[in-house]
Design brief:
Order of helices and strands: EHEHEHEHEHEHHH
Strand order of the largest sheet: 3-2-1-5-4-6
Helix content: 25-40%
Strand content: 5-15%
Number of strands: 6
Largest sheet: 6 strands, parallel
CATH topology: Alpha/beta knot
Mean pLDDT: 79
CATH superfamily: SPOUT methyltransferase, trefoil knot domain
CATH architecture: 3-Layer(aba) Sandwich
Number of domains: 1
């Protein structure tokens, strides 16, 4: 089971069920884990779960890239299995596609981040946003076991967003589900990721 049911409401009074957990499957680079933790901190998420992660040394890249998330999100991350995630959460996989190869995927068509936000608003269950490996993402067998799949449309000439960019864009789009109306951003943490958001947000407007 999960510990989600044991959680009370969060500080803004919203249901803890409505705040997704973030799962990264077999991340290869500690720095990317730190970048994702930082994006989570920016947009009101704090529950990070890692499937077969690399070592995350406190004096290494993960903590160096995590900003203020090194104080809570990153040290509190749980190591889990893919099977545990599928069994305990309403799962959303993330994948990159282009107009040339999208129909070769197991779960075509995919939802855009905006469509995903609308869908998740109606889900009354613990939800997990699942990111794949840097080099090859989630494979078709993994995608087939998830409840929904989301892709971030990008230009066909250079369609690949790195893991940190993808997390920042997607969590930005889901911010209405995760950030209270009165919650002020930590400007020291937010400034750099917002530049990523502005650069990539236009790809799916």
């Amino acid at each position: 089971g999960t510990d989600v049911d044991a959680e009370a409401t969060d500080r803004d009074g919203a249901s803890a069920r409505r705040k997704p957990v973030v799962v990264v499957v077999e991340p290869e680079t500690p720095g990317n884990v730190g970048t994702i933790a930082r994006a989570m901190k920016n947009f009101g998420l704090d529950d990070l779960k890692l499937v077969n992660p690399p070592e995350l040394a406190e004096d290494g890249e993960a903590y160096g890239f995590a900003g203020h998330a090194r104080e809570d999100v990153l040290p509190n991350a749980d190591e889990v299995t893919f099977e545990e995630v599928v069994a305990n959460y309403h799962t959303v996989g993330t994948t990159a596609i282009t107009g040339e190869d999208d129909q070769s995927h197991e779960r075509f068509p995919f939802k855009t981040p905006v469509e995903l936000k609308e869908s998740l608003a109606t889900v009354d269950a613990p939800t997990a946003i699942v990111f794949g490996r840097e080099g090859r993402g989630l494979n078709n067998e993994e995608l087939s076991r998830l409840d929904e799949v989301c892709s971030i449309p990008a230009d066909d000439d250079y369609p690949v967003l790195n893991l940190g960019q993808a997390a920042t864009v997607l969590l930005y789009e889901l911010r209405d589900l995760t950030v209270g109306e009165t919650q002020l951003p930590d400007t020291a943490v937010t400034r750099a990721p917002e530049a990523d958001v502005e650069r990539f947000h236009g790809f799916f407007e």
